[in-house]
Write a structure and sequence with these properties.
two-stranded parallel sheet
Length: 142
């Protein structure tokens, strides 16, 4: 496993209803306790992808380029793009319903002290631009 993605929300909604071939929500397990404790909202989820871990989403290791659409000079797997778009739609839907959402995107050897916080306003980030940043705690706003 390379990446782990955790999401928390104020919503009591069962996010497994959004599970698909490319996106899978499940309750975090005991091994995830260290990380889910960093999340801000009551209802916590492990977010997997078709690989069962969180590897097959769009991830960048740096925020230098910001949120950008897939580029020809950096080919990305189409399923990764589609999975990330599905995640975006779930997050956006929760925000539009008045809920709070944050997520934590971790590389396998992350340490608690190397995680950076980042506010993300989804009204300024399109579905095509949306991606995750390694070792970042993203706090979403509408």
């Amino acid at each position: 496993m390379c990446y782990s993605l955790y999401l928390s929300t104020s919503s009591r909604e069962d996010l497994t209803k959004y599970n698909s071939e490319l996106l899978r929500f499940k309750p975090p397990g005991p091994a995830d306790e260290k990380w889910v404790g960093l999340l801000r909202h009551e209802h916590k989820w492990f977010v997997g992808s078709k690989s069962e871990c969180s590897c097959t989403f769009r991830h960048f290791s740096t925020t230098e380029l910001g949120f950008i659409e897939p580029q020809d000079w950096c080919p990305e797997d189409e399923d990764n793009i589609r999975a990330t778009a599905e995640l975006y739609r779930v997050i956006r839907g929760l925000l539009c319903a008045g809920e709070h959402v944050d997520c934590l995107d971790l590389w396998y050897d992350a340490k608690g002290n190397d995680i950076k916080e980042m506010r993300v306003t989804l009204s300024t980030v399109s579905e095509k631009q949306f991606l995750l940043f390694e070792n970042h705690h993203l706090m979403f706003e509408q």
